[in-house]
Amino acid sequence: MAEEIEVYMVAGEPSGDLHAALVAEALRERHPVRLRGAAGPRMRAAGVVADYRSDNWGTVSLSQALSRIVYLWLTGLVILRGLKRRPPDVVMPVDFRAFNIGWAHRLRHRIPGPKILYYFPPGSWNPQPRDCGWLAHIVDAVATPFAHSARNLRKCGVPAYWVGHPVLDRLAPPADRAAFRREHNLPEGNPVVGILPGSRALERNCLGSPLLETVGWLRQRLPEASFLWSVLPWREPFRLDRQAANTPGVTPVEDSAVLLQGADLVITAMGTATLEAAAADCLPIAVYRGTPGMWLQWKCTALARMPAFALPNILLGEKIVPELLHTEVAPERVGAEVLSIWEDAARQARLHQALAEVRRRLGSPGASQRTAEMIWRLAHGEADLEDLALPLEPAEARMP
Questions:
Q1: In angstroms, how far apart are the furthest CA atoms of the chain?
Q2: At 160, phi and psi to the nearest 5?
Q3: 3-class secondary structure for 16-52?
Q4: Residue 70's domain spans which residues?
Q5: For residue 112, what is the domain's CATH number?
Q6: Do both 161 and 228 map to the same domain?
Q7: Global pTM value
Q8: In this predicted model, what pLDDT tens digit does every residue of 317-376 receive, in sequence order?
Q9: How far apart are CA 262 and CA 259, in angstroms?
Q10: Strand partners, 6
């Protein structure tokens, strides 16, 4: 029997927690491993022993970031001290640039033993070329979900591998959406509209009220519609979640995958959920609304000048998925987009075609398994991981 290895995982945001949990499950299914780390609820459920609970590490505003910077910096030092006493075989930081980049840099220079595989490298979603050569001095390998990210990193000398996006491990278009609804006891109205107000407390506080008001607006104009409202399974329901559960025509759903495969359309917060909608072929309307301070912060950064914000639009290089930001997230605006899509069969067809192209660009299922095998090989001193990665085009983009 192969000797057991130890892997230390660090995720600080809900999406990273989910991605790391899938890798943890893949490792435990295939190899003898001990899993520790800074872990969120999904990682803990997947068998990662939490030295630190990272449930509330992620931030979406400058004020939140400033309030946690000292705590996270001190926590990072304590984690390093523990790893120096008991070095793992492999460390896997997952996204969360604000913490993981500086922390991994200190790890590399203070504890030379562990191999470092960075999963979801910083800014991997951004197709614009940029200098990332500094990452080569920190990591032994990078597993990235996007082909353009792997190409750019390799041009900068970083040993990067395209593993595909793990949303494809969890989601696929249902063969028969109506049958799927019956199987999962979901309402069979026409249409069924999903609502994903975000995975962070601040997002839900900012988006919850206007999206619940959108339900009321739509019920007056589309009385045959049913609504699926996403609630977070690992915490107590927010006030608006309880209010939504008591709203006629609204069904609370804990599993976002079930919601996306059961709904015809989804109103979703910006972020990974827009890619999950694409993976499930559920027509998305992407929304984002923050506090006045967040809006001011956004207006003062380069983000405000981006041509698109929803990840499907970024991947396609074209604004196909509707995007509504800040003051645009009002019941009449969001509801009008739902009606426009539902009443226009040609627009629905164009959106479905665009989502199919997004799925193609996300690679193929198996990202979590590929990443798990890379970790196993790194732990055993193997540096050649090329055969585990998805092929990049053009051919010259492959690692020598």
A1: 64
A2: -110, 145
A3: HHHHHHHHHHHHHHHCCEEEEEEECHHHHHCCCEEEE
A4: 5-166+366-397
A5: 3.40.50.2000
A6: no
A7: 0.88
A8: 999 999 999 889 999 999 999 999 999 999 999 999 999 999 999 999 999 999 999 999
A9: 5
A10: 34
